[in-house]
Amino acid sequence: MRSSAPPQWLPQALDGLGFVRSVPGVTHPAVLAFWPAVTTNPYQRLVYGDLLRRGIVPVGIDDKSSIDAIPELHQLGARTVFHLHWTTQISALTRSPETAARNNARFLETLDRLRAAGTAIMWTIHNVVPHGCLDIERELTLQSAIAQRCDVIHVLGQRSTDIVSEGVALPRQRIRIVPHPSYRTAYPAETHRDTTRAALGIPPTEVVYAVVGSLRRNKGLAELLDAYDQMGNGSVRPVLIIAGTPLDQPTAELLRDRARRDPVVKVFLGRIEDDQLVSLVDAADVMVLPYQEVLNSGVLFLAWSRGRPVVGPAMGELADQVVANTGVLFDPDDPGGLARALADAWPLVARPDVARAIERALVPHNPGTVATTFGDVIQELVEQPPTRQITEVPEHGS
User: Fold this and answer.
1) Residue 51, exposed/middle/buried by CB under 10 A (0-12, 13-18, 19+)?
2) CATH code of the domain covering residue 212
């Protein structure tokens, strides 16, 4: 049950509706409420960038229990859309099967109430399953049930549809493909390569590889360190920066131990603010995505947005996105694949055509174009009544 107190996001929604009602040509003022709201990267801000001019107010929700309040905005003459992003907080990390089952049932009941009240539902599929998911079968069952309640399912590429459909029943007619935006406009163009290197004690002429972001087991850090050792002795290896928040104790201990033993590996554990993140990417020559499993990667677009090639797995959308001179792919199932990719990426540091290749690769991911396409999808939801039929499907897409 929802608390009787007004939800925290309500003032923003009211202020936004007051603004869009003054926008010329707006006939259907609306609120797009999205959950969970994430402020640690610019993705949501970028994809919602074209909504206000259309009369649609994007509002982030932190408290899952307040999702039920969305239809109350109908009393103000507003249309509503609920946009689900990551499903992690529903039950993926819940150990008790009984508690997880209750959480899943309550969330699906919430979606049913939204639908009955006339709120359209949209889901963006970022991952096959949430990071750290404790029960994959349970999660796939939940995702199939969510998919059947959606008016639109947003994926970031065709590979996402094909891969996720192996475990989740996706109504194909409701799928819309809108690619990941680049972060070119999200951060200042000015770089701090030299000053960041100086602060880290890295000479300007050294080749630097870097890993940034949340640090967890499935990101392949142990495999990366093994592959890094295969590159040769200290005189020929690049400097390796690993920076981010460790999400489990073994990972933290692994990295601390390695930093103590190897001065060429520089480890920075803890939260990285946006300006620090960009500075670390600017200080690098190659960004490494050593993931053992991935569907989409925001780090890829951060790297490219700062002109850096990548090393990444030939998995998910990356298998199509990373092309010649924009990076090097490796097969996570090949024991020597990552080591070879690290070595093969070294020549990219000096290639003048890398910058041009990255620019070409980023064309479909222009933030303005992505926001416009995304806005078209949302506007379609606002202007059409929500889908009412929930199709019963076999579990796990079988």
Assistant:
1) buried
2) 3.40.50.2000
